Amino acid sequence: MIPGIAAAVASTVGLFALLLAVMGIYGTVSYICVLRTREVGIRLSLGAQKRDVVRLILRESAQPVLIGLLVGILLAAATSYLAQGLLFGLHGVDIFAFIGVSVLLLAVALLASYLPTLRVIRIDPVVALRHE
Question: What residues does each domain of the chain span?
């Protein structure tokens, strides 16, 4: 009975941590993309294609997230190997969990940069230049 309760508590804490990470990534990436409204206005007024601007912002938004995921996976794998001797039933690295969480966080970051960028490229470049 006690191991079941401990597993439920650990799962709940893990889900809250994942939710907090998703909210943090979404908020930060979305805010950074909104701050680039003036830059998007300048690019569009100088003749850049909308799809090129969207691609640029998505690529530049995904780069720090990918670096963070890589560092996080390496640290989590090292922690998992260290905790393997301390916790019964823990066997190395759970590849499926690492890949699943990484894909989720990357998808949230891309969505967080894509939605504000779509909003910005729909407005008139002159209005975007006057933003702030």
Answer: 2-129
In the chain, count of helices (H) and strands (E)? 5, 0
Q: Which two tokens stand for residue 125?
A: 């470049």
**C-alpha distances in Å from residue 23, one per residue of 17, 66, 96, 109:** 10, 17, 22, 10
Q: Is the pTM of this model over 0.90?
A: no
Report the C-alpha gap between 115 and 125 in whole angstroms: 17
For 80-117, write each residue's pLDDT tens digit: 888 777 766 667 778 888 899 999 999 999 999 999 88
**Beta carbons within 8 Å of 76's beta carbon, 6+ residues apart:** 93, 98
CA-based nearest residue to 105, from 60, 59, 56, 72: 72
Report d(CA 32, CA 93) in Å as an integer: 33
Measure the CA–CA gap between 59 and 81, rounded to whole angstroms: 33
